[in-house]
Amino acid sequence: MRGRHFLVLGAGLLLAALFLWPALGSSPDAGPTLTGPSVFRYVAPPGWTSQVGPSSMGGFPQAIGPASNNFTPDITFKTDGYESISQFVQTYQSTLVDVTSQVFPLKLVDQEPFVTAKGVKGVRLHSIDPSSPPTAEQFSYIFSDPNGLIYEFACACAPADAARYAPIFDASMKTVVILQAGG
User: Fold this and answer.
1) Under DSSP, is residue 56 helix (H, G, I), strand (E, B) or coil?
2) Residue 51: strand pairing partners
3) Backbone dihedral region of 48: left (phi > 0), alpha (psi from -120 to 50 degrees) or beta?
């Protein structure tokens, strides 16, 4: 009799997990959930891994995708000081920093408003390396926390992969949640 109770309880927990998984902002084929304690949380693209980002960028978790076209795509988080999003966009000095700390200049191509699934409003900046041929393309998602601190999620890939990765980056950044201290 006791075994049947555990079987029923186990089946109930399995069903609850299957129904709750999408509500938690993840899916069985999603990448890892990355969290900067008391700062942010988001779900990386499917098939990606995570690692600790460069210490020059605060050592936050970084999402790493599979190498393609001589480039390893990534999502790197950094904070850019206390100012409004519009001030940040106006003074945007675009640079791409990879895990080996090489810096590539980037040229702003376009910008547009961006809103996460949880209603966090920000802006999406699209930049490309101006050299010929270009070596990197970046989609930066800029948000601010309730205290005005600017957060940037820099999503970089090879230019040849940009059309494929733009919607993947958008989908991942739709899962961004800005956390409160202790959240």
Assistant:
1) helix
2) 62
3) beta
